[in-house]
Amino acid sequence: MTAVAAPDVAEPPILEVINLHKRFGDQQVLRGVDLRIETGKITVIIGGSGSGKSVLIKHLVALLRPDEGEVRFHGHDLFQMKDSEILQARKHFGMLFQAGALFDSMNVYDNIAFPLREHRKMNRAQERATVLGRLEELNLQGAEKKFPAELSGGMRKRVALARATVLEPEILIYDEPTTGLDPMLIAQVDDMIAATQEKHKVTSVVISHDMASTFRIAHFIAVLHEGRIVEYGTPAQLRNSANEVVRRFIYTSGTGPLQAEARAPA
After folding, report:
1. Sign of CA dihedral 249, 251, 257, 262
2. Which pLDDT band holds residue 9 (cuts at 50, 70, 90)?
3. Backbone phi, psi, residue 102, to 5°
4. Which is more confident, 190 or 254?
5. In the beta sheet, which residues pair with residue 191?
6. Count of other CB atoms within 10 angstroms of residue 135
7. What is the tens place of the pLDDT at every residue in 61-101?
8. Rounded CA separation 27/247 (Å)
9. Sign of CA dihedral 155, 157, 159, 161
10. β-bridge pairing 220-225 and 42-46
11. Could you give the percent of the chain with pLDDT greater than 70?
12. Long-range contacts for 124-133 (Cβ within 8 Å, ≥24 apart)?
């Protein structure tokens, strides 16, 4: 492994993964993952199919317990906490799932209001002001009475983001947010992620296999390959990586220097 050195940052990371291992039967999925998630920044975890991205993300919110290793949230290992403490910690996380995971039987307003009703004590006026404010922020005015089936793919993503952010979490996790979208919608989702981070200063973790999208939004990139982080750094550092796995990943995406090398005359 030829990983880029960790960036020089003054404050400790909000999330830190230390030597994480996970096996399912005979399959070793995570093989000693180490990762820093810097406060208030966008970190993209990128890797191909079968690299362990989905398993890693479930450990970040303590939905899976590792065979070995730690996930520290504000310096405290999630897996040393009591169940009640883990539930409290999860309230600091927002999740945007690949398919949105909206409730089909609820309209847009009720989908966004659902977390408020579960976790906040608000009167109807406060709830309405919060929901409509979130809709306005994401340019969804007038959509509150629509149902998910009536929305375009881009609108469903925005409604899902409104619901994920309505409790103002410290950390937002996006699970493959651009999968299955056309290039214009991918650009819209990228803009949405970047704008949300900038406006709310929320720490964002994006799980992706899209290198072009990653380079557009990331402050830091972690490349997950065969259950290990093989490279970590800024987009500029990744573009100049000497790691062959990273260089080939960038090359096949059409976003990196190997494209120029491939076209150069012999």
Report:
1. positive
2. low
3. -75, 155
4. 190
5. none
6. 20
7. 999 999 999 999 999 999 999 999 999 999 899 988 766 67
8. 27
9. negative
10. parallel
11. 90
12. 130/166, 131/162, 131/166
Domain boundaries, the chain: 15-92+170-261, 106-168
- Distance CA(203)–CA(37), nearest Å, equals 8
Secondary structure (DSSP) of 29-76:
EEEEEEEEE-TTSEEEEE--TTSSHHHHHHHHTTSS--SEEEEEETTE
Residue linked to tokens 């899976």: 64
Q: Which residues pair with 71 in a beta bridge?
A: 17
| Structure confidence at residue 3 (pLDDT) | 45
| Assigned token pair, 23 | 């096996």
What count of residues does the chain have?
A: 266
* HEC readout, 112-146: HHHHHHHHCCCCHHHHHHHHHHHHHHCCCCCCCCC
Whether the per-residue pLDDT at 233 is higher than 80: the answer is yes
Residue for token pair 């399912």: 24
User: Closest by alpha carbon to 153, among 112, 189, 190?
Assistant: 189
Nearest-angstrom CA–CA distance, 15 and 18? 10
Q: What confidence tens digit (pLDDT) does each residue in 87-97 have?
A: 999 989 998 87
**Rounded CA gap, 82 and 173, in Å?**
23
Predicted local distance difference test score (pLDDT) of residue 179? 77
- CA nearest to 246, candidates 219, 216, 214, 217: 214
CATH no., domain 15-92+170-261: 3.40.50.300
